[in-house]
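Exercise 7. Given the components listed, write out the predicted structure of the assembled complex. Treat all entries as one system.
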Amino acid sequence: MRPRVLSWLTLVVVSLSVLVFVAVDERSPATNADKAYALATEFACPVCQGQSVAESDVPVARTIRREIRVWVDEGRTDEFIRAQLVANFGEDIDYTPAASGVTSLVWILPVVVGAVALGGLAVVFRRWRDEPDRTANADDEAIVAAARRRR
Amino acid sequence: MSNSSLGAASVALGLAAAACAVVVVVMGLAGRRPGWFREARLLTWVMMFAATAAVVVMERALITRDFTVAFVAEHGSSQTPALFNVATLWSALEGSILLWTLVLCGYVVAVVLKFRTQGDDPMLAWALLTLFLVAGFFFALMVGPSAPFDRFAPPLGYDGPGPNPLLQNHILMAFHPPILYLGYVGFTVPFAFAIGALCTGRVGEGWLLATRRWTVMAWGYLTLGIVLGAWWSYETLGWGGYWAWDPVENASFLPWLTGTAFIHSVMVQERRGMLRVWNLSLVISTFALTILGTFITRSGVLQSVHAFVESGIGPWLLTFLAVIVIVSLGLIGWRGDELRAPGKIDSPVSREGAFLANNVLFAAFAFVVLLGTIFPLIVEAIDGRTISVGNPYFERMTMPIGFVLLFLMAIAPVLPWRKTTGEVLSDRLHWPAWIGAGSMVAAALLGARGWSPTLAFGLGGFAGGSALRQVVLATRRQGWRGLVGRTNGGMVVHLGVVLIAIAFAASNAYVRQGEFTMAVGDTAQISGHTLTYEGSRLTEYSNRTEKSARVLVDEAKVYEPAIAQYPFAGRTIGIPSVRSTWTDDIALSVLTFPEGSGDTVVLRATVQPLIVWLWIGGLVMAAGTVLAVVPGKRRRPTAPTSAPPTSHEVLL
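Answer.
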């Protein structure tokens, strides 16, 4: 099976090089418009149900989009823009829950639950591995025989 | 008789029939008189008649604009076009509950017809009892807090506002909700049989096999309903997006996630007799999540935690949900000993091991979505703060899960049951893996940059290759029969999932949006496309006035996004226009026509690649589901691989 090993090796090398290439070779740097759009998707439109600032067409959303664009053009950081918007419109404009205080739970809980689930699986598999294989007893044989007869 | 009285009478008849059916089945079960179960079947028809009559009366009221019915006065209008007049039924709470009840009664009738030869079976009786109780609850909602036939005294010349304008400007609104409901409500059937299995103690594979196709069909409808909903929002909301992780979308996605886990893990139980408690929990969660979703979206709890008490329907749904969860958990605890699985999984690298991993991932996915959806409510309840959880959270948390799921989708279909060797894997995965690597190379050559979308293309190609390999092998072996049956149909569904995953990754990563203020003759550039504004025009319709902008795209064709004014509803909405090709979409919407600056328009253009493949992927998934419920090759009952008995045998 020599050729196949070679083929798998080639495949791994090709895939990794492509991934490294696309990660390193940034396409044309994001324009200010792109940055502003990406930021706008991270904030809730203050007067809509379930639409972000980027999505909504209502006047206030358009005003906020313009503000974000101005800040981006001025070269402000994302943190600055976030702080400004939260100060002006309240905490619930920010779609990203803070990683501190009560709201950090939304980030931590899934990780904890995931870890517990994986741990549980590992324990179960260990128990299964240590359990001896069962053999059929007389009852089982009878069930199989009955099924055969029915056929 | 007026529509109000007729409708109210129908609803009352339905409630009475459901209540009688419950009593009859309970007495039959208590007195061990199986003959009584048959009597309950007659009552099913009465329920069906009552629900149909109520819907017909409501539609008649809507079509004839009978404003003495409060629902019609609030949501109908003489200006609504005919098709959307019919669809007004599901544009608001009371009508939606009515539609839900009709679909549920349809399912109950189908169950009664399908299992008519097993009328004496106690498991069927318990399942029917559960169905009657659920149906009774929905009829009760319509008698109580969500009465669709309340009266209204319209003043002379009264006309209603019509449904929300967003719900009456696209044909998909006529199909998305009913199909979604076919999915939601369909999960009541496997749930009912799960309860039946728990109550009778026949917790083996019987109930699974009996409801196998029902579950797959419900899942297929839910899938199609969600995709149509995404399509609708893309075509009508004008923001160039199709999925926003908003609570209403999440409410439909949650049962889809647990339902998807369920239709995979049942195969482990059928083959190996394992995961009994898990499967029961999944099907119960799926049903409970459909109710929770209705609660979240219909009770007003989203505006504020405290608003739902005033909504009337909120406390009812919450109580119902609590009853479902408590009764189900109680039953599982009670049957705990009998639910202990006899088998074991030999190796994690096996088909059943992969299904287990799939389930853990889908459960984690559902947990993240559920937590993100209800977290703002929890925080508000704890310390009164209002916070939001949106896009950034869901994307960050679910992207890794999505990648692992795609990888698993590539490996799992070729894994044999019990255990495998490296050689088998190397042999079977060789070509699929190269398809994956090839997709990455091709994507990079076509200009894809950034590791995460490229990885998604690679894993998508890998998973697609793997599914394709199974389809090719099966059709080579069995001809056209290689396309039908659960396994083969399932592979077609996988192909649809791959299309959606790739289109999702591409459109998310490479979206470009721009806002342009243009006078007549002005030209704008975005993502290699040229937009030219050619002027505006005004059109009058029966229910709205549209001002549209004529935009020449790539000097080839004119598209006309518009702003529509609905005088009766007192609302203005945007009507986007989308240019679709196989490779990319340009979604155009008018933000405003500024006053006093001549013929100028503020236009928003969103360019995204591969959007059309989302809808194609959804259709492929639906087609795969249909193929999956067509009976495939029959396995002989005594064939060596832990043969599942047929549902008929088990229920006898």
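Discussion: The first helix of chain A runs from residue 2 to 24. DSSP finds six helices and no strands in chain A.
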